[in-house]
């Protein structure tokens, strides 16, 4: 373990905790992450523009492997900081963890209908999760350099992937949201099962997947005020409906932007040239 401890010591560099939307000295890290994410979004939209399924699958698998690699670092560094004791609160099945699993399945499956359903999830729910953390990252920054990089890479690429897919591969009709909601509901069910397993047989540390474990409070805006007022099963129902509404909003934004650009003569000319 000596070599591993030495490696983790190198990867445990510290920095002043970044502050979002402050002065350049305080917030340069956040501003840089936003700039890089915007550039990556433009490049990704262009990369997927031709509609090639081969490119799409390569993009999805590459995205998933990229995030899983950073996730492995995150798991190791938090365990290292705790003297190699596992920290259950970082178990990788929060809402924002799921796009890397969904993208991997979407990139590997040969079932076109399943792939489209998973893409619809990534272009709506995944996009919302990435945007929320990038625009309002107050809770994600700490003093460990590598973790700050990991969280910006993770949420930034959720945004990048979501926009690129929404623009090029999500079918921009209201029906698209139904499959995305089904995927989210399955993921919520898995989170409920994981919470139950931990509460029943492990009961160690904080384990609050999707922030719907009845043993712990959530810190999600609006939902944190609702949870104490209703039975838990009602809260979970509100949780699912609330997330469905914001995911649907992402879809309608995509529909609106697509309609605006299609009315642009230069864009129609570009499409005509691309189809030849």
Commentary on this structure:
The chain has helices spanning 2-10, 24-47, 53-81, 98-108, 112-135, 145-168, 176-202, 223-226, 232-262, 265-275. It starts with a helix and ends with a helix. The longest helix has 31 residues, at 232-262. Helix 5 packs across helix 9 (232-262). The model has no long low-confidence stretch (mean pLDDT 93). With 276 residues, the protein is mainly α. It has one domain.
Gross morphology:
globular
Count of discrete structural domains = 1
Q: H/E order of the elements? A: HHHHHHHHHH
Number of helices: 10
- Between the first and last Cα atoms, what is the distance in angstroms? 59 Å
Given as residue ranges, the uncertain stretches (5+ residues, pLDDT < 50) are: none
Percent of residues in β-strands? under 5%
Oligomer: single chain
Q: Approximately how much helix is present in the residues?
A: over 70%
Using the CA coordinates, give the radius of gyration. Answer: 20 Å
Tell me about the largest β-sheet. Answer: none
What number is the mean pLDDT? 93
Structural class: mainly alpha
The total beta strand count reads 0
Features:
globular; 276 residues; mainly alpha; 10 helices
Tell me the layout of helices and strands.
Blueprint lengths: L1 H9 L13 H24 L5 H29 L16 H11 L3 H24 L9 H24 L7 H27 L20 H4 L5 H31 L2 H11 L1
In short:
By secondary structure, the protein is mainly α. Helices cover 70% and strands 0% of the residues.
């Amino acid at each position: 373990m000596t070599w591993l401890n030495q490696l983790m010591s190198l990867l445990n560099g510290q920095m002043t905790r970044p502050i979002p939307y402050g002065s350049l000295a305080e917030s340069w890290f956040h501003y840089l992450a936003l700039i890089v994410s915007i550039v990556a979004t433009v490049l990704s939209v262009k990369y997927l523009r031709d509609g090639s399924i081969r490119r799409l699958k390569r993009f999805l698998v590459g995205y998933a492997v990229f995030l899983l690699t950073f996730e492995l670092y995150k798991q190791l560094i938090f365990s290292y900081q705790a003297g190699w004791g596992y920290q259950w609160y970082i178990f990788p099945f929060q809402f924002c963890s799921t796009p890397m699993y969904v993208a991997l399945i979407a990139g590997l499956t040969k079932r076109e209908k399943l792939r489209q359903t998973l893409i619809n999830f990534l272009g709506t729910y995944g996009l919302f999760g990435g945007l929320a953390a990038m625009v309002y990252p107050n809770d994600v920054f700490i003093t460990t350099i590598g973790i700050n990089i990991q969280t910006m890479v993770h949420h930034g690429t959720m945004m990048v992937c979501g926009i690129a897919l929404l623009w090029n591969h999500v079918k921009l009709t209201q029906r698209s949201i139904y499959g995305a909601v089904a995927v989210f509901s399955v993921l919520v069910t898995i989170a409920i099962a994981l919470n139950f397993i931990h509460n029943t047989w492990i009961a160690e540390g904080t384990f609050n997947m999707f922030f719907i474990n009845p043993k712990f409070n959530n810190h999600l805006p609006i939902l944190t005020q609702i949870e104490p007022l209703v039975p838990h099963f009602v809260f979970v129902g509100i949780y699912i409906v609330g997330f469905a509404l914001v995911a649907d909003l992402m879809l309608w934004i995509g529909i609106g932007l697509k309609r605006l650009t299609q009315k642009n003569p230069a864009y129609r000319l570009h499409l005509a040239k691309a189809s030849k």
